[in-house]
Give the backbone structure.
Amino acid sequence: MKRIAVVIPAYNEEASVSAVVSSVNSLVSEKYIYTPIVVNDASTDRTAEIASKLDCILLSLPANLGIGGAVQTGFRYAWREGFDYAFQVDGDGQHPADQLPVLLKGIENTGADVVIGSRFITGKGFQSTFLRRTGIRFLGFQIRIFTGQRITDCTSGFRVVNRNALELINEYYPDEYPEPESILYYHRNKLTISEIPVVMHERTGGKSSIRAFSTIYYIIKVSLAMFFTNFRIKKRRS
Amino acid sequence: MIEFSFRIQLLSIIVSLLFLLFIGRLIVKGKLREEYIIFWVICTLILVVFSFWRDGLDVVAHLLGVYAPPNIVFLGAIFALFVYILYLSIILSGLQNNNRKLTQEMALLREMLEKLGKQEPKVEKKETDGHHEGS
């Protein structure tokens, strides 16, 4: 039996957190045990109260760290507790739990260290807006220049990582908008990344961490961060 | 004319000395950490020196080949501020990193404590069992 951590970063997600946790708990498999880990990022609503009554691990941050810091907390927990694989699933219901086995199958079949679920390979399900797709393509273009690898959905937070990647994340994970930057960080530390098609939903509650007015800021910030990640000193691996 | 420049000199001497006094007070009260003292003391001393030494600016400007002496004040001041602000940004980034680590560690420890709290009754029972076997 392999143990699977499902990290659910939640900032003011009282409307959807219980549905996400129970959808993870409803997954039954002979090969895997799924453990939902809710990371409450200092929510001001009843997220913590609701999550504490659910069948899940609850990590409550005393101060708001943002998505990257919250996800890293869950991944650090998974690393310390010896989980075999760890997922990141958004707390707003955008990533359907029934796609988790698809990604798991992907990581076991490809032998990659990181598998990203992409909504653009088959073009099914929620496809986001034109502006965002253009931004994603632009960031993907930069990733292709730096890594030589084509990633169609580099902002997808729907990912599964193995223990090699968990060890890296335990050391460092980007704070703000971590998804595209972490791809370069994995690449720089010689991890293999692969991408498989998934179907995403439109979010059921909460707001995107990327708001409309800050899309340009997002693109510039992530581009800069990605550029400098290429020169970041590699983690010394024992 | 002479009286005017004397007035401004007196004013700048008073202001820079007061500033030096204020910084000294902050240090004594422990409100300013040692790392930041050096920058402020040096800057204030430069102010004091140039308020007393009226021709100093012209002399320095001449030495460096600057045509208009006031320009050297702007150049120097802006450069010093840039460097200092960068230094503060570095400190801020370090603090943010520490803050993140501490916050994460607190969440992880809290979870561990709660888990231990739930296990506690079992541990007590084990201890009493061991006691019985021993006696």
